[in-house]
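Our consortium's second objective concerns turning raw sequence data into structural hypotheses that experimental partners can test. To show how far this objective has progressed, the report includes one record in full. It was chosen at random from the queue rather than selected for favorable results. The single chain below, 292 residues long, was entered without modification.
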Amino acid sequence: MSVQEGHVPFPFHAAGKDCQTYYKTVGDLRKGIPLVILHGGPGTAHDYLLGLTALHEQHGIPLIFYDQLGCGKSTALPEKAGDTSFWTEELFRTELDNLLDAFNLRESGFDILGHSWGGMLGSAYAATRPKGLRKLVIANSPASMPRWIEDTHTRIKQLPEPLQQAIENGNREEKYDSPDYMEATMAFAKNFLCWKEPFPCAEFMSAIGHILGDTTVSGTILTALGVDRLQQIEAPTLLLNGTDDVAQDLSVKPFFQNIPRVKWVTLNHAGHYMHVDALERVVEAVNSFLTA
């Protein structure tokens, strides 16, 4: 299996310095249609999604992973912390455009898979009808942040009362390191984020570690694609969520109702990290969609 990694220069004047986007490719991009994988957050990095290399190992699909600006191995911008005028949807769409052009994929074509926030970004990008986009996969993603917040509150209410109270107290008092709050949030994660044993699994800890280790980007994108723009998506689209996902049907439904050519698959007994909980079923669903 051929794996290459490197950095693509990303000239973005508002950053105030030279920036680079880190990438990792799996397989020969000249053999097949590459699948570009967009990680969640904002503020995580690509590595918690590396289980999706099974798409190449089992089906030969070439893959491009990358870290969004300010995340992982891409250029860090701690001086932009809290600057919501900088961390915008447009920034991340521009970065994705730059990456695709660096790999010369406009003529040969490409597919996109976005997880969580990455699915929101992928849908926003697809709504611009970019040249070369063939198919889109939106995995475990809400159509908007208000719906995500509502889903999160719904899931919290499904926890035992003492855990609900611990989360409420920790959020109100901003005591996120208290033992009760940490116990409650880990219970939330085990029920609705990632089931894999032993818990917490490496993929979950990687994603959380990036967010806690550098909070520059996390929490800055509070809104994304408006539902009215979903109708502009021309690419055939696959929606994926799990029965035990934080992204419940309420969050996913606007995608289904507004994207013209769309298929929706819900996997049983899978949480928000269903590429970990149900990897084989995710690989089967994505490969079937991409090769149809």
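The partners drew two points from this record. Residues 31 and 127 are 27 Å apart (CA to CA). The chain is about 35% helix and 15% strand. Both points have been shared with the crystallography group to help prioritize constructs.
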